[in-house]
Design goal:
By secondary structure, the protein is of the alpha+beta class. The protein contains four helices and eight strands. It has two domains: about 55 residues, no CATH class; about 70 residues. Helices cover about 30% and strands about 30% of the residues. It comes from Cognatilysobacter xinjiangensis.
Length: about 150
């Protein structure tokens, strides 16, 4: 037979552990953190009460957790629709294409020969897990590409 307190106790312990992990550590003032010798060696013992209070306030504000960084914009993985600048004749591994939006894309692998076309429309879409694929309007194949630097 199970102990009737086992489940409630485990819930309480888990909740306590979670709240302990979630709470940011409280700021401890310098005069409580450092020994008299450390205060003297760093010159902090020469500060007035007001200066020490101000320094502790600055350090306490800095000790607060930074706001979470904004999530990566989904736009960075949004499809790109533009026109190639210049004449398209196909690609080889390493070919760099410049689009009329200013972005540059480099073919990762493969080759394809095409009839010359002036400034065709292209669509560059993210792959399911990674990578990008460029489709040139009117062409039967796609190129594996990456942003060029």
């Amino acid at each position: 037979m199970r102990n009737r307190f086992a489940m409630p106790l485990s819930i309480v312990l888990a909740a306590a552990a979670f709240t302990t992990m979630a709470a940011p550590p409280a700021y401890v003032p310098l005069e409580q953190r450092l020994t008299a010798e450390q205060m003297r060696n760093t010159g902090l013992d020469g500060l007035s009460e007001a200066q020490l209070r101000e320094l502790n306030a600055i350090l306490a504000a800095d000790a607060r957790p930074a706001p979470a960084a904004p999530a990566k914009r989904e736009a960075t993985r949004a499809p790109v629709e533009a026109r190639l600048v210049g004449r398209f004749t196909g690609w080889r591994t390493g070919t760099v294409f410049t689009l009329d939006d200013g972005s540059r894309w480099q073919v990762s692998e493969g080759s394809f020969d095409a009839r010359p076309v002036e400034a065709p429309r292209v669509t560059i879409k993210p792959g399911l897990l990674s990578g990008w694929y460029m489709h040139v309007e009117g062409q039967p194949v796609v190129a594996s590409v990456r942003r060029a630097r």
